[in-house]
Amino acid sequence: MYFNPAILRRLIDETGLSRPQVAEAIGMSLATIDSCLSGRQSLPSLKTLSALADFFAVSIDFLIGRCDEGQVEKIFADYPRYFMELRRAPYEAYLNGRVAFSDKGLIGEAPWPYNLLNVVFPNSQVINTISEEHEADIVEAIMTLPERQSEFILAYFRDGKRLDKIGKPANISGERVRQVISRGTSALRRPPQADYLLYGKRLAEHGSGVKLLEISLAARQRELELVKKKLDENYSRIVEAQEYLYDYGVEAMRMAKAITDTLEVLPPRQGAKVIDTKSIKLAELGLSMRTYNALMRLGCNTLGDIMVIAEEGSLTKIRNLGTVSAREVLARIESLTGKSFFGKGDNPPR
Prior knowledge:
Elements: H1 5-15, H2 19-26, H3 30-38, H4 46-56, H5 60-63, H6 69-76, H7 79-86, H8 88-95, H9 114-120, H10 132-143, H11 147-158, H12 163-167, H13 174-187, H14 193-199, H15 201-205, H16 208-265, H17 289-298, H18 303-312, H19 323-337
Helix pairs in contact: 2-3, 10-14, 11-13
């Protein structure tokens, strides 16, 4: 078992990376990469092999020559695309914001063109798989920008060059290059370039209906959020009312029990009698004939009927029932029931 430097050299060439970029991406020194490429090490350390295999999305067996020639050629047949498609873990790390837009090549953190899309649209989830046609539309959108902006954007995001390297031929600083790129990415956020980047040219040109639907759905979502907010507020009020009614009911029950307990210990009122006034006929009251006849003409047949009139204080208003007869009736009621209606309303006093 031995390390095949030709495999590593070809991997670097196929991806279009430089040796310093590879060293930076896997977190090792340039001397380590050069040592692997020179063949001075018959077998690099397991840490180095694992880092290289993870970065280039191949197996350690592939690096050390334990694959047949047909399998090697099959992997290299379309390796640049293969490399970009399998670099998902770094891409997810970039989406989660762990890699900043700075003076550092983004190859190795997010593959082209995802790195560009996530800088242009930092708050949106970009398409997971971009076709060759879509990628060509992205380049076409970039080429509509001023020449320097499009040149710098492609060099930085697609070719993975550092800012200072990009500015060196034009004799400008890396900070100046960053400013040019920032202006270009800002311009790409405006339509139609933004639509080309997100959807591709074909969908962008025929996607007005989709956009209107998205606007409608967003408006409906806002309406639903307002309805939910009102429902939450009303629910809170209902809960508060229920709690108040519960507390009020508990207090009312407590007061009712206290009143009941008090009544149970009170002595009965002296002279009070409990009788069925409706069952005592008028003839049984022993009233004088004059009084009896006056009450009969009025339609009073029982003690209960007379008590209704006495309660209203209207005995003296009965025809042919004078003050003396009224006192007779009130005295009889009091003697039988213990209730006194003397002086109530127009009733005569004692």
